[in-house]
Structures are given as structure tokens and as C-alpha cells.
């Protein structure tokens, strides 16, 4: 497969990656905001409980404590959701990195194979000169590897 084809296929595969990352990060930010809002509620409930503990009935105290506990439970759920979302995001990026590694390995193998074919062709030519195709392939290979002439 030509160098351009590898690049084109890879770019096609990551076309939606920025949008998916942005969506996931926005969801994480939303979970953070919800958690902060709940922490504010917990603080106000705790202040209400501590400032009025002597005057509240047992049922009122129990009710406030249940509200605080429910808010903490909801915060934990939001945190768990955020961890799951972060793991999914990591796996999504990791999948693309592994694909890039695989494609690069295939590309390098193709280059080596073509280089060997080119060398075989050059050695059997009657003039003994390097073929134009082989020189061009080596140039493309060096450019792809970042080794410019």
C-alpha cells in the first residue's frame, strides 16, 4: 500500500476523534459541576444540622442526615461515572495509537520489501546503475521516516 494510502486511511479513522474527545471532556466537566453543586448542598445541610441540632427533633435530625447521605451517594455516583468516562476516553485514544503503530509497522515492512525488490532489480540490470524507481522509493522512505536527504 502506498504511503499516502496509509496516511489517508489513518486520517479517516481519526476524523471523529476530536469531537468524541470534546464530548467526553464536556460530560466530565458537567459531572464535576454537578458534584460541586451537591457539595454546596451538603455544606448548607451540615450547617443547618450543626447550628440547629439542639432544637431539632429526632425525626428532623434523621431527615437532614439522610439528605446529606443521599447527596454524598450521588456525588460518589458522579465520581464513578467520571472515572468510567475517563477510562473509555483513554481506551479510545489508546486504540487509535495502537492502530497507528500497526500501520507504521506495515508501512515500514512494505518499504523494506520494495527496497529489497528494487535492489534485486538493480543488481540484475545490465548497466549496473541504480534504477530510478529504487532511488525514488528510498527517497520516499527516508521522507516518511523523517530522514530528509
From TrEMBL:
It holds the Pfam family ING. One of its GO terms (cellular component) is nucleus. CDD domains: ING_ING4. Coiled coil: none annotated. InterPro entries: ING_fam, ING_N_histone-binding. One of its GO terms (biological process) is positive regulation of apoptotic process. Residues 6-107 form the Inhibitor of growth protein N-terminal histone-binding domain. This is Inhibitor of growth protein N-terminal histone-binding domain-containing protein. The lineage of its organism: Eukaryota, Metazoa, Chordata, Craniata, Vertebrata.
